[in-house]
Design goal:
This protein is an alpha/beta fold and 301 residues long. The chain contains ten helices and eleven strands. The chain folds into two domains: 185 residues, 3-Layer(aba) Sandwich (Rossmann fold); 99 residues, Dihydrodipicolinate Reductase, domain 2 (2-Layer Sandwich), CATH 3.30.360.10. A six-stranded mixed sheet has the order 7-8-9-6-10-11, covered by helices on one side. Helix 8 crosses helix 10. It starts with 8 loop residues before the first strand and ends with a helix. 41% of the residues are buried. The N terminus is likely disordered.
């Protein structure tokens, strides 16, 4: 049985990928932050967009609070602790996990060292959130799922699929084309597009499969189909550019509409709230999602 969230859970944020500042965004949603400490965040994009939001979000601040952090880069860990006004103690990542109830792993690349941390947290009966993709290969995903002490202990997701601007978007039988455009590389950011497609397709996403892909410089175009909607052409484009806005273009009855995501932090908020409120989740659906994402990502060489 999935443990209930009683009071404010102690949350540890550990590990990171170079250039990814999600640990500051996620922590802010739980703890808020001081404008005077904003300069301690080394990520310019986050310093720019955080002041646009009223933080912490009420739902998350009631559920938990970040009490421990560990980054393999000591300077980054120091900056995060200053930002959150946390004690600058020198704990190991193992101690951080032991001294928490929930663990957020912000390393978004499925490395061997990241898996070691996930496995350790699962063995200590901690609920674990993994940023973006759980793993690229089906065998690795299935291995991690079997290591759970209870159903739903492990949760991996992309905040894009939870962004409020995409929640009312529906795909009808008259939809002929679907284009998802996202920045950076396919291997690390393709998950944003795949998870968004799966949310839009609903049950039809169970039969989603990759048709082919083309690479031109840093840009990757991946073509997908689904058996349930045979006339629907799906393409995910990763542009290789940092500044690309994540968007959906939908073609229906020869008319097209484009929806752009302008609220990344609200997507993070909805995703983390979903993680901490297990009664809203279907664990069997999530398992199928992990496997489908890994299957499609893993098929690209």
């Amino acid at each position: 049985m999935y443990p209930a969230v009683n009071g404010k859970a102690r949350i540890a944020i550990i590990d990171h990928s170079p250039g990814n500042g999600h640990m500051f965004s996620f922590a802010s949603l739980f703890n808020g932050y001081s404008i005077g400490k904003l300069s301690s965040c080394p990520f310019a994009t986050i310093r720019e967009y955080l002041p646009s939001y009223n933080l912490p979000r009420e739902e998350l601040s009631q559920l938990g609070k970040v009490t421990q952090t560990w980054m393999q880069d000591p300077e980054l860990n120091r900056d995060l602790k200053i930002f959150l006004d946390l004690p600058s103690n020198s704990m190991s990542w193992q101690d951080c996990i032991e001294d928490s109830d929930f663990v957020i792993i912000t390393n978004d690349k499925p490395t061997i060292s990241r898996k070691e941390k996930i496995v350790f947290a699962l063995s200590r009966n901690k609920e674990v959130f993994v940023d973006k993709v759980l793993a690229w290969k089906r065998s690795e995903i299935e291995d991690l799922i079997t290591r759970q002490s209870f159903e739903g202990q492990l949760f991996a997701a992309s905040g894009v699929a939870y962004a409020p601007c995409f929640q009312d978007v529906n795909i009808s039988e008259n939809t002929s084309e679907l284009l998802i455009e996202i920045p950076k590389s396919w291997e690390l950011y393709g998950v944003h597009g795949i998870e968004l497609v799966l949310r839009l397709l609903g049950e039809a996403g169970d039969s989603l499969y990759k048709v082919g892909s083309t690479v031109c410089g840093k840009e990757t175009n991946v073509r997908l189909r689904t058996e349930r909607l045979k006339n629907l052409s799906i393409k995910i484009r990763t542009t290789g550019k940092e500044q690309t806005q994540i968007s959906i273009t939908i073609v229906e009855n020869d008319e097209s509409r484009r929806i752009v995501m302008r609220d990344p932090l609200l997507g993070f908020n909805s995703m983390l709230e979903h993680w901490l409120t297990p009664d809203r989740r279907s664990f069997e659906v999530e398992k199928r999602r992990y496997l489908k994402v890994g299957e499609i990502l893993g098929m690209v060489q």
